[in-house]
């Protein structure tokens, strides 16, 4: 049955490829002559075809939509990798909408009862069977607790994991095939992109992870008038069910509703930027899926607007070193100190240590100087970061997952901010925050805190030093092999012995009519050798 389902899925993919002429896009990539010649063996290419009126990006987008929710989410993730994709394809993939028909309420209720161990009527005072929203991974129902609190119940789609495994297997197969056939495909690191996607979507299947992320983000902004995160009801949370406070905000893209309540759009846009910098530099814990569907605006105090964030399934974090290097990079960029930018990339380990600073500096200057000819308010911060990653990749920059999530989040925030308030100058809004953060890192209080942290490590360092000196003074007694390791080293040999025993027994079984036949001496030799190896100490 599984084989039949896999073949059926493959045929479905093939039909979509033919319909949207994705083979033409693939054949435009550099590839060996023999592979290009073999394309003439594809039957559908023998038929006359009219030129398509759609661009290659539009055809790819429509194909992913036709292949279903897993491929749609893959396209959404791929659209954030602008350092890998041509601009026209990235722009089209950014238009992908994750709109999926809901599954039956009865199945949702059955899954809730299975996860929580009680009937829905006993768990909730009211449960609305008509879902509020439905996406590729889960759908959401409104409900009320017996305590009177209005909540939403998020339920993972049933039987989703086998479908995801099947689709990811085909995506990996396509990626491996493309990378073997094309230098351009290898440059795009398609296998790596698919593996990143697999990790992301499997994380989204665990709603306890999302609940924990939501609780952390709420704690980070407790009492803040910048961002509100709904309360998680932990007693009702399981791996496939999440229950949290229901919010009644305005979708951030509903411009008419925001205008109707006289929302201060400039303050709203600037607060989005402030939230981003606060999450990245103060907390090192940022919501990495801040597309418009996950962001609302509070209906209270429109003159002092507050954001509401939901769906914390994907979050990112930076190490203190990454935070420092990123802040110094951004400051150096806007001072056009390209040599410092190049040196920081090498010092941070983002590009190999053997990279020539002068060459890297020249490449960065070539890309960035045309951008800085524009007025500062017209410069896209996100696009600048993308161009930087593109240059760094030419110098063998390894993929930094935390920076990819950061780039994605920054692009979302900047695009949203300029939609709300087109005159938004992201740098003027963010620069004071960055400068203040860098001053705080060097403040006497922070230096004292760092010294205190180092002092707390002294007992541990002293213990390690004492152990090291004892081992050096008594190398034979202190470095005796650990018994379990000795036994472990013998296992490969014993495995060979067992294999010899099995092979000898099989050969001997074939000659049971006359076990003393001289022709069976190899079997007896195998048995003897295998027995000796297995039983010896």
The shape, in one word, is globular
- The separation of the N and C termini measures 49 Å
What is the count of distinct domains?
4
Count helical runs.
25
How would you sum up the major sheet? Answer: 5 strands, antiparallel
Helix content: 55-70%
Radius of gyration: 30 Å
Extract low-pLDDT stretches. 482-489
The overall strand count is 11
**Average pLDDT over all residues:** 77
Q: How much β-strand is present in the residues?
A: 5-15%
Structural class: alpha+beta
Give the secondary structure arrangement, pairings included.
Elements: H1 2-19, H2 22-27, H3 33-38, H4 56-67, H5 69-79, H6 87-93, H7 105-116, H8 120-123, E1 126-127, E2 133-134, E3 138-144, E4 150-156, H9 160-181, H10 183-187, H11 190-204, H12 207-220, E5 227-228, E6 241-245, E7 250-251, H13 255-260, H14 265-283, E8 286-287, E9 295-297, E10 307-309, E11 315-316, H15 320-334, H16 338-347, H17 357-372, H18 381-394, H19 401-420, H20 426-441, H21 444-456, H22 458-473, H23 475-478, H24 483-509, H25 521-535
Parallel strand pairs: 5-10
Antiparallel strand pairs: 1-3, 2-3, 3-4, 4-6, 7-9, 8-11, 9-10
Helix pairs in contact: 4-5, 4-6, 5-6, 5-11, 9-11, 14-19, 14-20, 15-16, 16-17, 17-18, 18-19, 24-25
